[in-house]
User: Fold this.
Amino acid sequence: MRKLYSLVLIATALLIGTNVKAVEVARESELSTAISEAPAGVLTKITLGDNITLTTNWALYIYGEKNVEIDLNGHNITTAASGPVYINNGQLTFSGSGTVSNTNSSAYFVYIIGSATDVANYSVFNVGEHVNMTCAGSYGIILSQGTSSKPHHAYGIVLNIDGYVQSESGVAIWALGNFQDKTGNVPVINISSTGQLVGANDEVCLYGGGYAIWNIEGSVQGGTGIYAKAGDYNITGNAVVRSTASTHEEVVANGDGYTGGIGCAIVSDSKNGYAGGMEIEISGNATIESHAEGGYAIEEVKSDAATSKTESLVIESGTINGNLSTTAELQENVVVNGTITGGTFNTDVTAYLSTVTGVITPVTDESGNTVYVINEKPTADPWLATIVGASATDYVRMNNAGTVTLSADAQAKYLVMQG
Assistant:
């Protein structure tokens, strides 16, 4: 499991105060001029003096190693154009406070192109903590390859989401499935503790078709929170990955994209033609939840692949509200490649005992519901012994006073006789 974080923000900070071109604008024409005249390799900081409406496609076109920061300064940018933001070999940052919105229901908002060659920080997009970015169309942000012919590459894409990104009718972030490099400067998406991604209630919020590294500490929610066909997913901190759908739809194989899978917090789909290699790690106080009828907190499927492409599922800690998929595929993959070492589940995880290295304890929560807590089982306890031939939750312990106790599960099966 690789965890790569961008150094772009640090580099940007070093530029401020030493080599900055500062511009204030109040009209679309002034904003367009400021961007077109932005020099390569120098931070151009544009501060809005009023609300601005964009009327053309690619109105914010960042290329040629331009580094542009737009400080909303309490103002808004509105557009109804199709594809108003386009980044190909440059950096764009929305900072300050304000809203950036696209009201075109049939358009995407931000299109980001990666490099055909293995370079770092080729196309970078930053959404500041107090920025609200909404799109009425099906795609908020699209990540795409830098080559039109195979093999496709998308090196050097970096997203840093500290604010709010929503697609009102579709997907907040869509990573195309064409780019499949697993080494080098693969795309890195950092969703910080203040970052929020929101997709439609009947759609996926985060679609990982192409191979990328996703570091998630914020909120990801939609009909399905995460739909993964490739990549590493590091979900930690106080992250929340949630399905907001009311019912579950089964996954059905199709061409690019997905059909079904709605009603799950996380879907890991093994499909032919995609890079696969899904590694999912859940830790910290992360919450993974689905309350959809028939839905799953985590579901692993093979929509058309003969063998699973999910390499690991590791749950170190956190809260899992919703069922784990009971398909043989998920159990097999957890057994072979992953472990469940901790967490709180509202579904009985006894089926995964062969992969659980901790102690499962059923407890009653504040609402009177039974949840299953996995705590790490002591391994260096000289007074602890497992019961031969029994499950992972059956063990016996003797203290210094010679008192013998059984684990909760073992008490129902065994009798201790002392004397």
In short: The helical segments are 8-15, 28-36, 328-337, 408-411.
